[in-house]
Amino acid sequence: MPAAPLPSDEAERLALLHALSLLDTPSEPLFDRVTRLASQLLEVPIALFSLVDAERQWFKSRAGLDVAETPREHAFCAHAICQGPPMVVKDATEDERFRSNPLVTGAPNIRFYAGVPIRTSAGLAIGTLCAIDTRPRELSEQDQAVLSDLAAIITEEIRYRERLAVARAQLERTGAVLGASEARFRSVFDAAVVGIALVLPDGTWVSVNPALCQILGYGEQELLGIRFPEVTYPPDRAEDAELIRRLHAGEIERFTRQKRYVRKDGSLVWVQVDVSRKLGPDGEHEYNVAVVKDIDAQKRAEEELAELNAGLERRVEERTRELQEAIGRQRQAEQELRAREVQLRTVIENANDAYISLDRHGLVTAWNRQAEETFGWSAEEALGTTLECLIIPPELAGAHQAGMRRYLKTGVASVVDRRLELPAMRRDGSRLMIELRIRALDIDGEPLFSAFLHDITERKEAEARREYESRHDALTGLPNRRALMEALPVVQSRAGRSGRTMGLLFVDLDGFKAVNDEFGHDAGDALLRILADRLRAAVRKTDSVFRLAGDEFTVLLEDLGDTWGDAHRVGAKLIASIAQPAALWSTQVQVGASIGIALCPPGAGLSPDALIREADQRMYEAKRAGRGCIRPELPASGSA
């Protein structure tokens, strides 16, 4: 196994690596986020931020690997730092440099490797961002761009720390607040790209540089007249006070935190503050050095990411803009679309809606975590499978397949770019209702269907309940007055087409008030439920019973033959049924009914209100005639 050559600048490289104080330090969220993203976006099991030391490579951040370091002689990264462009090894078993490498022949069984050097401001390669797989593979131009962009994030942070270390080292050499090297100190102090301040233990500024004045929006003299805590955002002061107390007590030598300052114009700015204490010759705490970095843009970006849950379409647009800002260059339209899709995988994976994408053959190419929870299929099971085998009910499978074929042939689809409510199936066979939004994209001439699905089962059930309750009487379960007013025009229209007469019976109970008065409203309600069941049982399936209010009911009769005779026979049947004694707890009660009839022959032109009024008037005639009867009386011929 040939060893990697040493870079020509090896001594200078190692000196700077150790000066950055990165080796053997705890993990940091920024670097861990980058390696996690590299693993997810490139779909590799291992991603590392590796620092190449004299005898070893040490991993500042690692995703998918347990060991913290390996010998330099085994390190792929030792080769990668000697190259300008990214180093790609498609199959390590076929590469003379690595086929006998213990990391190839044994754990972690490296087959594929891609590494981008991480270089300092002077171009010294201190390590790499690398992606590793246990199977041979190609690295596409798109994936190479992603790896380079992520490496650029680490490079930018390393160079910031390099500048910070230089500034801190220069400040250390000043010796004291007002030493003999004031001129040299001031030149470094004023030229620093980060805010720097010297602060007395009581919070009084001793000196501030132009960069800090610019961050806070104050002139130098204005800022010197304000104490350190006064420009701190009030909710952040308590944590500041505790850290300063520990610093003064000697419990810690320095601290770093993110906080908010209140600028002169009242606006807030997020900063990262690095505070270290400086001791005098007698060991007393003389002053603090505060290095302030403006991270407001970074914080704003984080807040924007947090808002992505409010709407996935907005999240997509914002994430794309952030990606464009990060890579710092304009790409052609097709490259932007591919990069956006890659970067959005993590957003889609954590979306509140199920996300599914299909290729031209209808096979699933993406299936996020919410899709797993909604439909019960794991991503591993769903990928490469058709929706007909996963979530589409059998009765809709044909329409789905036909729609796919029509779109591929004509570019026209009835479901694309619309919000649709459709039934779907879970793995266990249970049904649910979903709201579907689907878009068709063209990626390098290949169609891709991108769909968001939201479970609206509970909402649809609630709507159905509200719809049912708005048209039904809560006590008896019979359709109510609203349902009657909607049904009458439909029945009249149907009667007009068939040429048959329809009728309306207006039923009012006789003696119901006495039951309420003697036994109470609970008994009256129980009786109304009994009578409602009797009315339903006494009419044909083609007829309908409605409760208007109180003890008033209507019966809608369709397809009358002997018109008045049929209507009277139904009315008599209802009176007889209602008159039967009803058992209420320990007693029996008996009521009667008076019924008014209104008929509507084909072409009569009666409005629903007019028909109800006529039946109501006839009912009152029955009441005045002695109750327990029907009006108008049956004509002598028995028909109209």
What class would the helix/strand composition place it in? alpha+beta
CATH architecture of the largest domain: 2-Layer Sandwich
Distance between the termini: 111 Å
Biggest beta-sheet profile: 6 strands, antiparallel
Query: What is the overall pLDDT average?
Result: 87
Strand content: 15-25%
Order of strands across the main sheet: 3-2-1-6-5-4
Structural domain count:
5
Helix content: 40-55%
How does this model look, in words?
It is a single chain. By secondary structure, this protein is α+β, with helices and mostly antiparallel strands. The protein has 5 domains: 10-169, GAF domain (Beta-Lactamase), CATH 3.30.450.40; 173-294, PAS domain (Beta-Lactamase, 2-Layer Sandwich), CATH 3.30.450; 308-347, no CATH class; 351-457, Beta-Lactamase (2-Layer Sandwich); 472-631, Reverse transcriptase/Diguanylate cyclase domain (Alpha-Beta Plaits), CATH 3.30.70. It is 41% helix and 25% strand. It contains 22 helices and 23 strands. The strands form 5 sheets. It has a 6-stranded antiparallel sheet. The longest helix is centred in the first third of the chain and has 32 residues, at 141-172. The radius of gyration is 41 Å and the shape is elongated. Mean pLDDT is 87; it is low at 174-181.
